[in-house]
Structures are given as C-alpha cells and as structure tokens.
C-alpha cells in the first residue's frame, strides 16, 4: 500500500459528523450546491426556485419541479402520459435499449424524457412541454417527438401560446433515424403554429445540445435561457477535437449565445414565471388596449378569448 | 472519362474480385504469348467473376455500404447536376456574409423544366476537399441553401436536393454563427414552401447536416447510400466507449437504404450499377434523371396546398411508439 492510498482511505473513513451530514443530504433535508459547495436547507432552496442563495448557481431541476415553479397551482392538465417507446430497432449496445428504458422508468418514475400538458401562468392558458434530463439525458426519440408534436398541434388548434423547456443531449441514438426525423416532425408542427401567428417561447436550460438545438430549441419567436446553461449544436469536446485547441471558457454558454444574437435574454429562474407572463400578455390580441389609439395599428384581431 | 483510366480504388471486400480479374488477364496474356486457345476457361472464369461480384454486392454489411457511400470516386452533387440537367448556372452566397463551398446550388433545366438544384459537395481529391471541407457545411451553407429554395419558391421552380455529407461542420465559427439555428430554420421553412421538393441521398446522409436540406415531398436513396442519426464511429465511441466498434454501431443504427425503406423513412431506393455508382456514373445519373422526371410529373398534378399537406403528413407519421394502459 502506498502512502497515497493511505491518504485516500483516510478520506473515505470520514468523521461521524460528515456521515451524518451526508445522511441528511440523502434524506433531502439539506442540499449541497455543486458550484460553491455551500449547504442550504432544501426547503429554502425550493422557495428560491432551486437557485443557490450564495452563488446564484442554478441547480439542475426536473420536469415536476419545473411545472410546480411555472404553472399556477391546480391548473396543470397533463397530456399523453401513457406513450412509451417500444425499441423499434431492437437496439443493443453494452445493454439492450429495452432494459435501459425499463431501468430509467423505474429509476425516475417517468415514461420518457418529456412531460407535456396545458396550464396557466398568471392566469393565462398555455401549452407547456418540459424535457427531463434524468431520463436518458433528455434525449429525443419517437416518444419525445410525438408528445411534443401533439402538444404543438394542440396549441395550434386551441390558439394557445407555447412554451418548451429544453434540456437534452440531442437525438436518441438507440432509435437511429427515427430519432433524427423527430427534428423534422416537431419543426413541421411549429411551422403550422407560427402560421397562425401564435407565440412560441423555448426556454433553453442546461444542457441544450445536438438535434434539439437544431430543431425546436432554436425556432422560438422569442428565446430565453437560464444563466450559464450550455447551449450548442456540436458538443464542446467534439469541437475541441475537430480544432485541436482549447475553447474559450464561455463558449456555448447562454451568455455567449446572447452576445452572438441567438437568444433574446438570459433570465434567472427566480424571474422566469414573471417574465413569461409578461411576454405572453404583451403578445396577446387586445381589442381595446388603449383609449388613445383608435385606429388600426396592425394589431391582430382577437379571434378567440 | 479520365476517372476510368486511373487505377481504381479498391475496397477491402472487392479484393477477391480484383484478384480473380488479374488472374483472367494473366491467363489471357500467357495464352496469347504461347498461342494456346483458352477461351473456354476464360469464359468460365469471367462468368465466375460476374457471379462473385453479384454475391459480394448483394450481401454487403452496413459498414461496407458505408465504405461505398464514402468512396472517393463516388459521383458527387456537381457530377449528377452536370449529368442530368440540360443547362445550369451555379449561384453563390447566403446574402448574410458568406458563401460555403460545401453546399452548391443553382438554377437549371431538367427535361426543359426550370428547377433549383442544390446539394452538399465533397471534394474530388485532398486539395479540393480542403476547400469543400469534406462536404461538411457551415451555417452559411444552410442559409445559402434556404436562400436558393426561397428563390425557387418565388419563381415556381421545383427544388431538387442532393444529400452527401458526413455531418454538419462542428467548428468554432459554425457554433458562433448558429449551426443549430441554421439547420432548424431550414427544417421549418421547407415545410412552408409551395413548390415540389425531391431529396435524394446520393452518398452519405450524415445526421442533422443531411436533414438540413432533406425535407421533401419525396426522399430517395441510392442503393449504396447511407443515412444515419450519427456517424457510426462517433456513436460507437459514445455507446460502446470504443470507436473501433464502428461496424457494430453501423449494424445497430440501421443506416442502409433497405433499412430506411423498411422503417418507412424513405420513398424509394434507386438501383446502382453493379459494383456501385462510381463504376458507371453515367448509368447512375440516368436512373436518377428518369426517377426525378417521373416524380416531378406526379407531384405536378397536385396543388401546392395538397403537396404541403402530404409533406406534413409524411413526416408527421415518422416515429414508432406504443401506449401503455394506465
């Protein structure tokens, strides 16, 4: 045994207080910020939209928590919760795709990597899709593509604004070309939504990459992102390999995309709901918006509502 | 053609065939020198060569198909455009500050009908490939393609796209100028266009880089072309943690024309001359031309509204999933 091993072992056999601390973290009472390391009461953290009170780091959150944060209580109506993938290619890498799916379903309680439905934000009805990174890295296969397409079509039929919270590594390779075509399918549905002059706002969260970036994530009328989220088409490592050089630290961050003109705003999670509410209201048809302007200013007539 | 005069580039699986052909030549030479009549034997050997060729090319593995799809002599977009069009003029630039040589396009005439022809362009040799970036397009390439397709839509010209790219370019500038946005935009806008669109995968259909000009009323694939969600080598590196497992990934990903036909993701497989399109490029071009003309005629009978609806439904139906009973 070398001296280093001995040091390593010493670290592993940690003092009781740390064991206790870890147990409480496991219990979910405390949450450790992965950025600055500070321990925060999970309850406080939740009240702060899972944003670290010390360093403003946005801890990763998942679909249920996101819906809780955005949607007015009691207004969420989920859609297509029973759609599941059926391993059309009988794909097997180091593990079969069927087994992988089952494991993720058991582990996460989700059927696949997106939740869709309708709900209210500050009293305004909208269609919302939330990708869930826990489920196979939020990858898009047939189920994600189908659920999002149905959601977009529902929004078009019912003249609803649409919000999709993106978090994905890209296309799901285990479904081969069927995955790639989901990019086309969702984009097609968005074309029809757009054709009806309806508002679509994607929210890019950490990480949004690959086929999702090259389809619905970048097709918003207005695009918002969370601070420091990684957003890009090719993965950072792939780009580094192609170029054989180190990339700037801020490469592919939300802030980088903002300065390059690809998104409209970086919005802290604590302000996301209010920002969405404001934007949706600004784009609503208002027949009697003002007593000052009587003429036709090009505003779209209110067909519904 | 000068290409046929050069020494053909052999793929591994073609070697037994090449050996047999060399033997036939040798025997013929020896026979001639010695004045012996061996025509019967030669005929037999030649028949065997044809049979062997058929055997080899009818049972290619996906990795071998990939090798054929990437064959350096495989006809490129410009080869096909020149072969099938009555006339054509290349147009340049995305009107946003760039002109990507990895995507070419222009106006031309197919059997008298004005059309827009565009596609990925790989290089013919190393020097050319440096200019063409091996057919890996940048955002300005996709934006050029879109500009040309909008032009076609305005002037009522059908759009013919040719897909042949390993992938969209993954470089610093590509990210900086919005590779994701450029592809996404094309995906959406191609559903808006009124004119008929026919896409043909002529070689390598690499992921989003291919799909960026791949939304059509019809999508065709040449017999030995491939179309993949990710390069098999990259997929192997991620899923198997071993880039050497490329052949297994190529198998699992279902990338051949036959696979895609079975999955209902393409409309038709265009047959290639035995041995691949590069052995007789003009014959492959004839097949392409005939199919395009025939298909344009069919699509021309529909109204633009019908075409758009059918285009939507075609891609809408893609995907396989099931429903659990709650």
TrEMBL record, chain A:
Q: What class of enzyme is it?
A: transferase
Keyword terms, alphabetized: ATP-binding, Cytoplasm, Fatty acid biosynthesis, Fatty acid metabolism, Ligase, Lipid biosynthesis, Lipid metabolism, Metal-binding, Nucleotide-binding, Transferase, Zinc, Zinc-finger
Alphabetized GO MF terms: acetyl-CoA carboxylase activity; ATP binding; carboxyl- or carbamoyltransferase activity; zinc ion binding
Per the record, the pathway is: Lipid metabolism; malonyl-CoA biosynthesis; malonyl-CoA from acetyl-CoA: step 1/1
Q: What is its EC number?
A: 2.1.3.15
The answer to whether the entry has keyword Endoplasmic reticulum is no
**Any single GO CC term annotated in Swiss-Prot or TrEMBL for this entry:** acetyl-CoA carboxylase complex
Q: Which residues bind Zn(2+)?
A: 33, 36, 52, 55
Which InterPro entries does the record associate with it? AcCoA_carboxyl_beta, Acetyl_CoA_COase_Trfase_b_su, ClpP/crotonase-like_dom_sf, COA_CT_N, Znf-ACC
GO biological process terms, alphabetically, are: fatty acid biosynthetic process; malonyl-CoA biosynthetic process
Localisation per UniProt entry: Cytoplasm
This protein's major location comes to cytoplasm
What interactions and quaternary structure are annotated?
Answer: Acetyl-CoA carboxylase is a heterohexamer composed of biotin carboxyl carrier protein (AccB), biotin carboxylase (AccC) and two subunits each of ACCase subunit alpha (AccA) and ACCase subunit beta (AccD).
Role played: Component of the acetyl coenzyme A carboxylase (ACC) complex. Biotin carboxylase (BC) catalyzes the carboxylation of biotin on its carrier protein (BCCP) and then the CO(2) group is transferred by the transcarboxylase to acetyl-CoA to form malonyl-CoA.
**HAMAP family named among the record's database cross-references:** AcetylCoA_CT_beta
UniProt protein name:
Acetyl-coenzyme A carboxylase carboxyl transferase subunit beta
Species whose genome carries this gene:
Petrachloros mirabilis ULC683
Organism taxonomic ancestry: Bacteria, Bacillati, Cyanobacteriota, Cyanophyceae, Synechococcales
Automatic annotation (TrEMBL), chain B:
Reaction(s) catalysed (UniProt annotation): N(6)-carboxybiotinyl-L-lysyl-[protein] + acetyl-CoA = N(6)-biotinyl-L-lysyl-[protein] + malonyl-CoA
Query: Domain of life of the organism in this record?
Result: Bacteria
Which SUPFAM superfamilies does the record associate with it? ClpP/crotonase (SSF52096)
Q: Indicate yes or no for the key word rRNA processing.
A: no
**Assembly:** Acetyl-CoA carboxylase is a heterohexamer composed of biotin carboxyl carrier protein (AccB), biotin carboxylase (AccC) and two subunits each of ACCase subunit alpha (AccA) and ACCase subunit beta (AccD).
Family membership, please give it: Belongs to the AccA family.
Q: What is the name of this protein?
A: Acetyl-coenzyme A carboxylase carboxyl transferase subunit alpha
